[in-house]
């Protein structure tokens, strides 16, 4: 990969023009404005994605990998072409991409597969991944619940010990603490690429190097990086990674699990049934190679085709241009929020690369009330703990307001948002 210094500067994208590609945004006129700043929860879908799903369902709808008729063969080709397209988007080969229903399903798949390794399923290849009492699983304090609870359950099933890399006051990870937490007993290191609350890009290369030094498996949540920055998972060196389609302009109920080939080959399956076997008798079964080994049951065919259309759309805009645009919007948000009295941001640091996410507290006003006030002005944001209760607890709060930008947001969107935030405390009669 080229370094940032040698790469040409990305061309500026025209966010206002791109809005026309998104029916929900394009349909909202001046009389019914919508400033959509909740893409961290779910993104809007371009017409190209909607059309791809509709075209499949109206012209080629058939079960894949099963029928011998022409339409089934065509559906299978489209399905596997989608795998190739989405895999290439994250720098992977098709056989390294497992379809899942989303990132949560992918993380559970990995955790439960490790459970099966721990009880001898898939041995001897899976034996190196078996966890035993006293082994360690290292997470971070920034994790979404989807990258926390499956590991809690795995620890409970195996007797492994959970450890957590702490967060500094500015929202960055304490990497000095990480160096002491990742030890010879560490078997798994699971971490988010980008915090869904703070928007901070974590030092992935440093974390992976520490894990590799002790032979630990690395698992990365790429939900908030895949839609917003160029991503080459093999180049990063991570063993396993997940991402979610609905956050990257794609359909719901589709996501991906990337795995290094030798890791996927060694892991036993989690879900079992049709589509993931070679031979079945009444007493035992033999399983297919990855990725099909992990894809039991009916496949998400139209969703996969829709996600392929989404990544083609993102590639067409240009991931470097998207990242540069959203970094600029984030800086505009953060600079503006800093200037508003009574607003406290979570993870307010200039020390790290970021995506277009800003979470904050408004002094004297509950996050839900602040969100409803913004909604009354046509500004959609997320309120609550954002499935990251431990991180909020670290900052002494139970909820925050989160604005998350995407490629279709403009400077005018950010300015209207900041104007709205500046009026929250006066509206609720909170004095300085």
Automatic annotation (TrEMBL):
SUPFAM superfamilies: PLP-dependent transferases. Transmembrane segments: none annotated. It catalyses: (sulfur carrier)-H + L-cysteine = (sulfur carrier)-SH + L-alanine. Pfam families: Aminotran_5 (PF00266). Its cofactor is pyridoxal 5'-phosphate. InterPro entries: Aminotrans_V_dom, Cys_dSase_SufS, PyrdxlP-dep_Trfase, PyrdxlP-dep_Trfase_major, PyrdxlP-dep_Trfase_small. Keywords: Pyridoxal phosphate, Transferase. GO terms for molecular function: cysteine desulfurase activity. The keyword Lyase does not apply. Its EC number is 2.8.1.7. Residues 35-417 form the Aminotransferase class V domain. PANTHER family: CYSTEINE DESULFURASE, CYSTEINE DESULFURASE 1, CHLOROPLASTIC. Belongs to the class-V pyridoxal-phosphate-dependent aminotransferase family. Csd subfamily. This is cysteine desulfurase. It comes from Microbacterium marmarense. The lineage of its organism: Bacteria, Bacillati, Actinomycetota, Actinomycetes, Micrococcales.
């Amino acid at each position: 990969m080229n370094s940032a210094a040698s790469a040409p500067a990305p061309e500026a994208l025209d966010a206002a023009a791109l809005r026309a590609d998104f029916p929900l945004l394009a349909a909202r006129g001046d009389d019914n404005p919508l400033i959509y700043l909740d893409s961290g929860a779910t993104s809007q879908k371009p017409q190209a994605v909607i059309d791809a799903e509709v075209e499949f369902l109206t012209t080629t709808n058939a079960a894949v990998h099963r029928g011998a008729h022409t339409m089934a063969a065509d559906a299978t080709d489209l399905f596997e072409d989608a795998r190739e397209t989405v895999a290439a988007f994250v720098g992977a080969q098709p056989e390294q991409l497992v379809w899942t229903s989303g990132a949560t399903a992918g993380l559970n798949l990995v955790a439960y597969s490790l459970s099966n390794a721990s009880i001898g399923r898939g041995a001897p290849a899976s034996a190196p991944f078996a966890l035993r009492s006293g082994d360690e699983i290292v997470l971070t304090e920034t994790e979404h619940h989807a990258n926390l609870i499956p590991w809690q359950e795995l620890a409970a099933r195996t007797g492994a010990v959970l450890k957590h890399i702490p967060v500094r006051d500015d929202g960055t990870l304490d990497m000095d603490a990480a160096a002491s937490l990742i030890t010879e007993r560490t078997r798994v290191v699971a971490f988010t690429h980008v915090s869904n609350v703070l928007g901070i890009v974590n030092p992935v290369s440093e974390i992976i190097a520490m894990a590799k030094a002790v032979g630990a498996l690395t698992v990365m949540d790429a939900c908030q990086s895949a839609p917003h920055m160029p991503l080459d998972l093999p180049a990063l060196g991570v063993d396993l990674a997940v991402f979610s389609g609905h956050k990257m302009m794609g359909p719901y109920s589709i996501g991906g699990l990337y795995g290094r080939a030798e890791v996927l080959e060694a892991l036993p399956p989690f879900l079992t049934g049709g589509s993931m076997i070679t031979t079945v008798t009444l007493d035992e079964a033999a399983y297919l190679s990855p990725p099909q080994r992990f894809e039991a049951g009916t496949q998400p065919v139209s969703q996969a085709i829709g996600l392929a259309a989404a990544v083609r759309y993102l590639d067409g805009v240009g991931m470097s241009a998207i990242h540069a645009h959203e970094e600029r919007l984030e800086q505009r948000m953060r600079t503006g929020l800093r200037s508003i009295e009574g607003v406290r941001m979570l993870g307010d640091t200039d020390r790290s690369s970021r995506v277009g996410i800003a979470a904050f507290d408004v002094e004297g006003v509950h996050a839900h009330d602040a969100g409803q006030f913004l909604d009354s002005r046509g500004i959609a944001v997320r309120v609550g703990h954002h499935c990251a209760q431990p991180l909020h607890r670290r900052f002494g709060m139970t909820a925050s307001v989160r604005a998350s930008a995407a490629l279709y947001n403009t400077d005018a969107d950010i300015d209207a948002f900041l104007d709205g935030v500046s009026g929250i405390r006066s509206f609720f009669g909170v004095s300085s």
